[in-house]
Specification:
72% of the residues lie in helices and 4% in strands. The protein is mostly helical. The strands form 3 sheets. A two-stranded antiparallel ribbon has the order 1-2. A hairpin with a 2-residue loop joins strand 3 and strand 4. Helix 2 runs antiparallel to helix 4 and helix 17 packs antiparallel against helix 18.
């Protein structure tokens, strides 16, 4: 009998291979959807065992290594994120995929994500991590070679960093097993706490943390390692990007949680705390805060729909890193809560973008407008996503952001709290533009015949929208599940209410009041409230004369004043810095090739003689 964990991990990959081999339109889509649905069905089936506190484990020996797999409550939560969002993304691909190539590598990505979440040793974790990178790289390569190369180079840097960190741990512990690594580092922390000699030196721990920070930071899209994400997210099948942003980025988040689980005690003993936060955690949190601010500002300045939500996704990941970095039980649970929220509303957003592009063929704000009338269902889905990302009740995004803000403030971290608050404010800014520029206003004549979402995309959007609403009205469903991960009631309350001691949030009560308010507003409107028509060319210019050279409509150059005000800071680009460094490295390598590796046998003889002389001087 095939182990259930292996079915969860490999079912999508097998389906992808079959879909690629058959390459029959219609049949490959059916196989792909089945491949995405099977792991989700097994995860639901195994919930009863996980909920009872059982850890479902399996090991396999291959190539001289033993690979351990385990379904814990934490890995079940993250695997469910992959299952729900992955299935929705695959349903979207039924409408938007071009060929069997995409099915192969999209489902390979999904399989490898399950492998990352269920791996219980560092070697298996690394191998599935690399398979995930390969699958997503091939998806981006299909659409944009330049974007895929940038993603590949950053991913390779992250992979080598992870491999070096794993190598240091293995050299000291002699095992890749999470259990053995945890035991060794916990014992080492206890020894270090009393001032005795430790297995891992301060330099070892700093190196391991720094290397993992790079590895997980790349995949999560953490500043300043985020530069691959805007191009990669926007230059591929947008239905797949729902999985790319909603699921694959969570492997980076999961990695940061593993740092706490495996290395946390040892890092605290070695480096101490800053106020009440571990110093290593504060580094993660500060990078997360910068990611929120920079990602949010850059999102607001975009003219392309895909780029806006790519930068927005980066910004929202920052919330999760802030929460995880703060390191309290409440903040980490809030971070995982927001990982769920982010996957749901950002996955929904990218399916909405996929629908818009599929139906209109356009990606820039200047070419859109008035789509709410032609695409009412997609607009309704967008409305849910907008409320959730903006953190407006009763959507799930409000619950998770509220918990993060409370957790940060309770630890007396005003700078981080300010960054979190700024992220919410800038989120309103770019979402207002998305709302009015795409859905309202004057519709271009070439969009008069636009149709609403095709059925598969509509089903995918509906699944994610439903969870956004349900987990917002009943936030306790998520909180109670996450409490089981921690083994205590970190967040109290009922399924309708969150109670953290210093504050409460009742999703059902808020929903009732909102419905009452909307009914009253509707009555006033239909009884004849005064309204006025506003020309689509309405603009603002801060008292300056309006000219066509400075036309600030909602669809064109809306945030040009902000861009001009920040022109100095916008010139500072890590993307450009990395490109310049790469060009310098390439030029140096070319010079080395021309003057050292010149094909002259006499030169090589001299190199050999010099090396032998140096070795002789060293006494080798």
């Amino acid at each position: 009998m095939i182990n259930e964990l292996f079915i969860i991990i490999f079912a999508p990959l097998i389906a992808g291979v079959i879909a690629w081999a058959l390459d029959i339109k219609g049949l490959r889509e059916i196989v792909g959807v089945i491949g995405a649905a099977v792991p989700l069905a097994y995860l639901i089936k195994l919930y009863q065992s996980v909920n009872a506190g059982d850890v479902i484990q399996h090991s396999i020996s291959f190539g001289g290594f033993t690979f351990d797999f385990a379904l814990t409550h934490l890995s079940w939560v993250f695997a469910m994120i992959a299952g729900v969002v992955g299935l929705a993304a695959v349903l979207g691909m039924v409408s938007t995929s071009r060929n069997s190539y995409e099915w192969l590598f999209a489902l390979m990505s999904l399989s490898s994500v399950y492998g990352v979440f269920l791996a219980y040793d560092l070697m298996g974790f690394f191998l599935f991590w690399e398979l995930m990178t390969f699958g997503s790289f091939m998806m981006v390569l299909k659409y944009n070679r330049s974007a895929s190369l940038k993603y590949f180079v950053l991913s390779i840097i992250g992979a080598y960093a992870m491999l070096l960190a794993i190598g240091i741990i293995y050299a000291k512990v002699g095992s890749f097993s999470f259990v053995e690594v945890y035991k060794a580092l916990t014992q080492d922390a206890a020894i270090g706490a009393v001032g005795a000699g430790t297995i891992f030196s301060k330099g070892d721990m700093a190196a391991i943390f720094g290397l993992f920070l790079v590895a997980f930071g790349v995949k999560a899209g953490t500043f300043p390692l985020h530069v691959w994400a805007p191009d990669a997210y926007s230059e591929t099948n947008q239905s797949y990007t729902a999985m790319f942003s909603g699921v694959l980025s969570k492997t980076g988040v999961y990695g940061f949680i593993l740092i706490y689980m495996l290395l946390g005690y040892r890092l605290v003993v070695e480096f101490g705390t800053f106020r009440s936060v571990p110093k290593f955690g504060y580094i993660i949190a500060l990078l997360g805060g910068l990611t929120i601010v920079i990602g949010g500002i850059l999102a607001a300045l975009q003219e392309d729909l895909r780029k806006l939500f790519a930068y927005s996704s980066i910004s929202q990941i920052g919330y999760i890193l802030v929460a995880i970095g703060v390191g309290s039980a409440l903040s980490i649970e809030a971070g995982i809560y927001h990982a769920i929220s982010h996957a749901l509303f950002k996955g929904l957003f990218f399916l909405i973008v996929a629908t818009i592009i599929y139906r209109t063929g356009k990606t820039e704000f200047k070419d859109m407008g008035g789509l709410a009338e032609k695409m009412p269902f997609t607009f309704a889905m967008a409305f849910v996503a907008i409320l959730s990302l903006a953190g407006i009740p009763p959507m799930v995004g409000f619950a998770s952001k509220w918990l993060i803000f409370e957790a940060v403030i309770s630890q007396n971290m005003p700078i981080l709290g300010g960054m979190v608050f700024f992220g919410s404010a800038i989120g309103f800014v770019y979402l207002i533009r998305f709302t009015y520029a795409v859905w309202f206003g004057q519709r271009p004549t070439d969009l008069d015949d636009v149709k609403d979402a095709p059925l598969p995309l509509a089903i995918g959007m509906a699944i994610l929208a439903l969870f956004n609403v349900v987990f917002g009205i009943a936030p306790g469903i998520v909180a109670q599940e996450l409490n089981k991960v921690f083994g205590s009631d970190v967040i109290g309350g009922t399924i309708w209410e969150l109670n953290i001691g210093v504050g409460k949030y009742n999703g059902l009560l808020i929903t009732i009041w909102l419905v009452v308010g909307m009914v009253i507003a509707a009555i006033i409107y239909f009884l004849g409230a005064k309204v006025r028509r506003v020309p689509v060319t309405d603009t603002y210019q801060a008292g300056n004369p309006v000219t066509m050279d400075y036309n600030l409509t909602i669809r064109r150059n809306f945030f040009l004043p902000l861009k001009e005000a920040m022109s100095f800071w916008l010139r500072i680009s890590f993307d450009k810095l990395y490109k310049d460094f790469g060009k310098t490295t390439e030029d140096f390598a070319e010079t080395l090739k021309n003057y050292v590796y010149n094909g002259n046998v006499q030169s090589y003889a001299w190199y050999l003689a010099i090396i032998l002389l140096i070795l002789a001087m060293w006494g080798v």
